[in-house]
Write a structure and sequence with these properties.
Keywords: Membrane, Transmembrane, Transmembrane helix. Helices cover 74% and strands 2% of the residues. By secondary structure, it is mainly alpha-helical. The chain has one domain: Up-down Bundle (Growth Hormone, Chain: A), CATH 1.20.1250. The chain has a two-stranded antiparallel ribbon. The radius of gyration is 21 Å and the shape is globular.
């Protein structure tokens, strides 16, 4: 077995593909969070749009949460690195639950507080995902990272199969407002369960001093691999910034039925579940470069049906194509970036700063994506082709991401292997 020491993480194992108990427990917490978000988050943009009839308000809500989430990553880095990362994770989950409870209490008047609500969920997401990504790095190894990401995608897809379908059915059967109240309540309860479960995650030792400008120095250093990785992460964020909320809104606009959106999520998540499971099992580091290229081209090609007249059928074809091939892109991307964080003992000691650098790239990309969405809004009613061209413009960024990452894919791990003893 090939291992190499890594301060703060023990021995790094490059061959073991199994997941230990702490990794499984972390997956369980993530699955609960994914289920709660799938129940309510899928329908939140529709709820805001129905209450305001404003596409711009939905955009500003998302822009706010992305900005605040990225800022929270940077500011909370000192707490996570020098104090208690598990408390950051728990507070993040609790704030997410409080967010949905607040929306429940506000009802339709929530649209008047879209920006403050965006701040609340942004802080919650920032605290949770910062701690989660650091703990994920510590409980996984290069040899089992693809498997963890495969399971994470599989569980997320599983939540996407059942939860939105249930939400859509409840909203339809309860004639709207009461259905939304029910799903927001259920989500709040699930977040509370996730907080309780997180106490079984072991408290992890803190070490080192937080370096506020570490990421900036990486980008200034010539020959540093992060000068390629961060722009690639930005490309990932550009696509996510629009697709995370606009796809569901398009399905609702095409059908005027939350139940149809639930069915859309059921079908696409089922496809994604199978795809994540297969790719998570079969993908090995040396195959990442080819897999990510195929994924990038395929998810871009899947946008083609959106140039047909907008309908549930064309959106479903697009959704199935995206769900089928996105794991080929996202698993190599995520695993390679985290392998890069663990590429040396010095790098591993700065894992919190590197996780924040990764999030800074995602945040920058998401802001660019939402800004593009807000800029084209005035033209959407003038032409049927504005939406598909917007989706193509932001949806093709994975190809650029692959071009930037291609020199790193499959090489980060190999560079760390030591000769067998």
């Amino acid at each position: 077995m090939r291992t190499v020491s890594n301060e703060g993480g023990g021995k790094r194992d490059y061959e073991t593909r199994s997941l230990d108990g702490q990794a499984v427990l972390l997956l369980a917490v993530q699955a609960l969070l994914g289920t709660a978000n799938a129940l309510s988050g899928t329908f939140l943009p529709i709820y805001l749009w129905k209450s305001s009839q404003s596409f711009a308000l939905v955009g500003w809500f998302n822009l706010t949460q992305f900005l605040v989430s990225g800022l929270t990553f940077w500011l909370a880095g000192k707490w996570v690195k020098e104090h208690n990362k598990m408390n950051s994770l728990r507070v993040g989950v609790a704030l997410s639950g409080l967010f949905y409870f607040t929306v429940l209490l506000l009802g339709k008047s929530a649209v008047a507080y879209a920006v403050p609500l965006g701040v609340m969920i942004g802080i919650g997401n920032g605290l949770f995902w910062l701690a989660f990504n650091v703990v994920y790095f510590e409980v996984t190894e290069p040899g089992n990272r693809d498997r963890f990401n495969g399971w994470a995608g599989l569980l997320g897809s599983g939540a996407g199969i059942v939860a939105p379908w249930i939400s859509g059915w409840l909203i339809t059967m309860s004639k709207g407002e009461r259905g939304y109240s029910i799903i927001f309540t259920i989500s709040s309860v699930i977040f509370a369960i996730a907080v309780v479960l997180s106490f079984w995650l072991k408290k992890r030792e803190s070490s080192g001093t937080y370096d506020w400008l570490h990421g900036f120095r990486q980008l200034r250093e010539r020959g540093n691999p992060w000068r390629h990785a961060v722009p690639a992460i930005v490309c990932q964020g550009v696509r996510e910034g629009v697709y995370m909320f606009f796809i569901g809104l398009l399905v609702f606009l095409a059908t005027k039925n939350e139940g149809k959106l639930g069915n859309f999520s059921l079908v696409t998540s089922l496809v994604a579940l199978v795809s994540f499971w297969l790719i998570g099992r079969l993908l090995k580091p040396e195959r990442r470069r080819a897999a990510m290229l195929i994924g990038a081209i395929a998810v871009t090609a899947a946008i083609a049906p959106l140039f047909w007249p907008l309908s549930y059928r064309t959106l479903l074809i697009f959704g199935i194509g995206t769900a089928l091939f996105m794991p080929l892109y996202i698993i190599p991307m995520t695993s390679t970036v985290f392998d890069l964080i663990g590429s040396s003992e010095e790098s591993a000691r700065q894992r919190e700063e590197f996780v924040i650098l990764r999030e800074a790239g995602l945040t920058a990309g998401r802001i660019v994506g939402v800004a593009a969405y807000l800029l084209v809004l005035p033209f959407m009613e003038k032409s049927d082709y504005v939406v598909p061209f917007l989706m193509l413009a932001v949806g093709a960024f994975p190809i650029l991401g692959w071009l930037l990452m291609r020199g790193l894919l499959g090489k980060t791990v190999q560079g760390r292997k030591e000769p067998s003893s």
